[in-house]
Amino acid sequence: MFKGFKNFLMRGDVIVVAVGLITALAFSTLIKAFTDFVVNPIIARIQGSKSVGLGWQLGAPGNKATYLDIGSFISALIYFIIFMAVVYFLIVVPYKHSMRRRGVTVFGDPGPFKTCPACLFEELPAAASKCRYCGADQPQRPGSSAVR
Question: What CA–CA distance (Å, rounded) separates 124 from 141?
Fold first, then answer.
């Protein structure tokens, strides 16, 4: 039982996912600190010295529960964009490169699709001879050979 679990954990894909997750969490903390301690003060300073942030007070003055904080939303948006760029350029791009060296295509463009005339499913592969949902035979394009 433990040998099978060890073999599962030692597969290359699980290790790559684990390293990617750990890296993403570390960068998440770094980027969160950047937005909290650099971006938020800049946004608050733009509002003026007595402002609590960029936004509007919807209820009683001084009540944080009714303060519509647009500055925090902008900060979260910046955080998300930076985080996703870091994940893409430091995890996805090297992973694509290493998989390409192995001859495996990952995160590639999807193949051409056609629409099933019977059930109107739009993501049927162009080379399909039957619809995978309704089972209807698919008309073949001229010049293509269908293997059934």
Answer: 14
Q: Each residue's pLDDT tens digit in the chain (148 positions)?
A: 677 777 766 666 776 777 778 877 887 888 888 877 777 777 777 766 566 666 777 878 777 777 777 777 787 788 888 888 887 888 788 888 888 888 877 777 767 888 888 888 887 888 888 888 888 888 876 555 444 4
d(CA 84, CA 87): 5
In the chain the domains, ranked by start, together with CATH numbers, are 2-102 (1.10.1200.120), 109-141 (no CATH)
DSSP bridge partners of 55? 69
Beta bridge partners of 144: none
> Position of tokens 């900060």?
75
Residues 24, 30, 33, 34: is their CA dihedral positive or negative?
Answer: negative
3-state secondary structure of 73: helix
Tell me how far apart the alpha carbons of residues 89 and 126 are, in angstroms, rounded to a whole number: 32
